[in-house]
Structure formats: C-alpha cells, structure tokens
Give the backbone structure.
Amino acid sequence: MMKAISVGEFGGPEVLRCKTVPIPEVGAGEVLVAVHAVGVNPVDTYIRSGTYAVKPALPYTPGTDAAGVVAAVGAGVTGVASGDRVYTAGAVSGTYADFALCKASQVHPLPANCSFAQGAALGTPTATAFRALFQKGRAQAGETLLVHGATGGVGLAAVQLALAYNA
C-alpha cells in the first residue's frame, strides 16, 4: 500500500484528500517510479477545479511531473532499470503519490548533478518553454529574446533553452 492524493470531486484545494491505496502494478512497457519530489504545475490546479478542457474520471490522483528512483520495469522496457534516478514527463497513475506508474516514454534519466526537486521541475515547464520558443516563436540562434516572467518555472526554462540555442 502507498499514500496518494486523491481528488473525488472538482473544486478548490479542499477537495484534495490523502488516502492509502494499492501500489500500481507494472505492465508491459511501463515503469514504476518511487517518487522523491513532485512538480506542481498551474495546469494541475485547473484540472482539479474542473475548469480545464479535459476532465479526468473521478476519483483520480493529480500530477504529471516527478522525480525519483525506478522501483520496477515492465516487459519490453529499455533505457531505464530498477534503481535508476529518473524524472517523469507524464504519468499513467498521477504523481502526487509515493509511487507513480508511467509509460516508458514518460520516464527519462536524471543526471547525478540534478536534485530530485530539480528533476521534478523539468517536464511541463521545459516542454512548455520549448514549444513557445521553437515551435510557435521559431526562435533562432543569434536572435535577442525577451522572456517576460523569467522568474517562474516556464520563464526560467525559456531563458536556459534560449542560451543553450545561442539566442
């Protein structure tokens, strides 16, 4: 058994409940991560409140971003093994829990020089910044960029990505 946050109805933070639930079973192509840190993103609050375009079936465990250690891997999983430090960018079961079940494609190696807290902040903010800069904004090396709000998760990621791409 494990502890997990459960949302049984849409609403404010008062609908969050800590419950004891079974640890998810790992299937083919899946990875079970022992969660050490969780990323909390604005989209998590929109989903919980019921104002997001996509509403999960109730009850559910929130969260997509986390970092921790691989506890188990399912058949066919390559690239990570039990005991590896990883971060998640998506989850099948939700990350606000002691363990998160993920598709293998949602789990990525966490470098030794990154803390679990740093790893938990990578998924959604970095993907959002990348999409804004390079897919929508079409930023190019040598350009000067203004990142409005560079002190938040997405803004910090945008500055780091822009520097890495020589913008």
Q: What stands out?
A: The two ends are 48 Å apart (CA to CA). The CA atoms of residues 7 and 60 lie 5 Å apart.
